[in-house]
Amino acid sequence: MTRLLVTGAGGMLGRDLLAVLRARPDRAVTATTRADLDVTDPAAVHDAVGGHDVVLNAAAWTDVDGAQTRERDATAVNGDAVAYLARACAATGAKLVHVSTDYVFGGDATRPYPEHAPTGPVNAYGRSKLAGERAVARLLPDGGYVVRTAWLYGTHGRNFVTTVLRLATERDRLDVVADQHGQPTWSYRLAERLVALADAALAGDAPPGVYHGTSGGETTWYGLARAVFTLRGLDPERVRPTTSDRFPRPAPRPRYSVLAHDRWAAAKLPPPGDWLADLTEALTGLNDRRPGTPPPRSAARS
Question: Is CATH 3.40.50.720 the classification given to domain 2-156+183-217+253-273?
Fold first, then answer.
């Protein structure tokens, strides 16, 4: 029986990972939340990894703006802790599937970033996540898998999609940024892909390295908000386009975060599906949430 350790199991992605793994009786799963495992404690990490075949790391500092003034704290979770996990996996022979981000790129491209594209974060959060990627490559070259994702939404925790659903009940009009391009990604679909990659890694079918775990296609935040309205039977004309400079944030955001998916073929896995098809399916499962029902208040840790 394959033994898996899921870190960050209390967050949006972590809870979806557990849901996917529940359907796999051939898997013995250890789930650790932030309260169970301090991933910044190397001794605790070493002890937790022991006895497992695969570590699915969904633990992360996800406060992008907070990282701008607390970069050291963000890097402790997104960089140093990943090094501890990679080192522990190297010592025990376990595979590590680590979740990273599109924010490792500068956002100045005009076509989807391939997995091997040069990195260049524009904010502290991206630098902290890049430190984690480099730790996996350095310490676990033969058993480390980095999966970059972006624009995550899901049932568990606050995110853009649940925020749009809430604001649809509170405002007549929504002004949404139309000059940032990316790939909305359903956390449950990403969880399925992470588990599939872990299976392929154990079977020897997936070469280690970087994979892109976003949905296919691309849109803007404005396009995503209009799609949410349309799929909920609301008037999409209530959503109006605006520009990023109307919503200044402490941390700059990349303007273009579209990722290519070429390496999945090397793992004998199909590329991700289209973002709109996934959103259509996901909206039926967001607690069957209709306008008028607020989203949950728990913080996402993905």
Answer: yes
